[in-house]
Structures are given as structure tokens and as C-alpha cells.
Amino acid sequence: MTKIVRRAYAGTIESSDVYVELEPCDCGIDIQIESVVLKQFGDAIRRVVSEMLQQFEVESAKVKIVDRGALDCVIRARVEAAIKRGEGEQI
């Protein structure tokens, strides 16, 4: 199980990128998404983020996503980087 112990972020708010911010919390998983393509791809973005959290066995975190049209592979990479930073790993 991965425990988020500090606030961490990855990515930018540039076009075709995504900004991911994680914070520790005791509220389970709370995912907030802001996206220029929310109506079309909001469910897919939420699914990708949830899959990454499950893959790393994160059970509790506040997750803020600010998407600017990022591909799934970019979202996965940014979420992974934020998780590793949030657990204290230096990357």
C-alpha cells in the first residue's frame, strides 16, 4: 500500500499536458477534475486516474487534475510521478 505523506504535484497547465496535485487526507479517494474536454472525456480521465491510484495501491488522497487535452499516457505518467513524490520518493 502506498501512503501519500505530503502534498505533491507533477505536470504543467500547458496545452496537451495535465497538472496533477495529490494531498494526504483521511477521506478515501477524492478526485476533482477540471478539463477543457471534460464533457467529452471526463469519464475517461477519471478512469485513468483511478486505475493508476489502484495500481499503486493508494487508498486515501485528494487528487486535483487540471487537464489541457493530455493523452492517456501523459496522464498516467503525471499521476505516477505525483504519487512517487507524495510518498516521499525523490524523482
Beta-strand percent range: 25-35%
Overall pLDDT:
95
Order of helices and strands: EEEHEH
- CATH fold name, please? Ribosomal Protein S5, domain 2
The number of distinct β-strands equals 4
Total of DSSP H or I helical runs spanning 4+ residues: 2
How many domains is the backbone divided into? 1
Provide a descriptive summary of the structure in words.
The chain has helices at 38-55, 72-86; strands at 8-10, 18-23, 29-35, 61-67. The protein is built from 2 helices and 4 strands. It has a single domain, classed as Ribosomal Protein S5, domain 2 (2-Layer Sandwich), CATH 3.30.230.10. It has a 4-stranded mixed β-sheet with strand order 1-2-4-3, with helices on one face. The protein has 91 residues and is α+β, with helices and mostly antiparallel strands.
